DNA sequence: CTTCTGACA
DNA sequence: TGTCAGTA
């Protein structure tokens, strides 16, 4: 299934950093630059969903391709817009 | 766990 | 500019 047992898909920043292969400081910087916005617990701890991990891997990929954080932010925004438009197109086709 | 600061290439 | 180490 989607994950091992009850606690499905929420990770602390230390775990997320390990999985993606970067440092905790970097992930916090990405958030400051608006690249992702993980959920916070009432205590302020960031909780990364599997969707967040996908974004983090995309960030690493784009950085390797030579983009800076501003460029990565552009790409992620455009991809989000593209997904939204694509979904809208499918809805209009369905009706 | 969080934030901030500074050093490095 | 992005990464990383150390700190409070």
From TrEMBL:
One of its GO terms (molecular function) is DNA binding. Gene3D superfamilies: 1.10.1660.10. Residues 10-78 form the HTH merR-type domain. InterPro entries: DNA-bd_dom_put_sf, MerR-type_HTH_dom, MerR_fam. Keywords: DNA-binding. Pfam families: MerR_1. It comes from the Bacteria. Transmembrane segments: none annotated. This is MerR family transcriptional regulator. It comes from Arthrobacter oryzae.
């Amino acid at each position: 299934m989607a994950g091992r047992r009850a606690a499905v898909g929420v990770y602390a920043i230390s775990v997320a950093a390990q999985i993606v292969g970067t440092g905790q400081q970097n992930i916090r910087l990405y958030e400051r630059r608006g690249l992702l916005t993980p959920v916070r617990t009432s205590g302020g701890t960031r909780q990364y969903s599997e969707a967040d991990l996908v974004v983090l891997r995309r960030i690493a990929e784009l950085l390797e391709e030579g983009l800076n954080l501003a460029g990565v932010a552009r790409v992620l925004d455009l991809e989000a817009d593209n997904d939204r438009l694509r979904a809208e197109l499918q809805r209009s086709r369905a009706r």
